[in-house]
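Re-running ZNHI3 protein to confirm reproducibility after the cluster update. Everything else is unchanged from the original entry.
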Amino acid sequence: ALEDILGEEDEQDRVPLQKLKLLGESEELRNLLLNPHLRQLLLAMDRAQDKSSLLRKFMQEPLFVEFADCCLSIVEPPEKENVLPE
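Result of re-run:
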């Protein structure tokens, strides 16, 4: 089971399933995934033995960074700054 694999320190890096489902509902993310170059990058990442080194390389690719930023903004929306409470 996943709970057996993940330690307590890994738990803080997990994204709840309900937030992951939001990725499937995002029109912006779907549009990004129509790009064949991005799809090739994601397939390469999925198949790679050394994912961490490939991730460092891909983080230099503007398209991959745009994809990562889009995913992060969906599962962890930025907090509104400088907003006065009502």
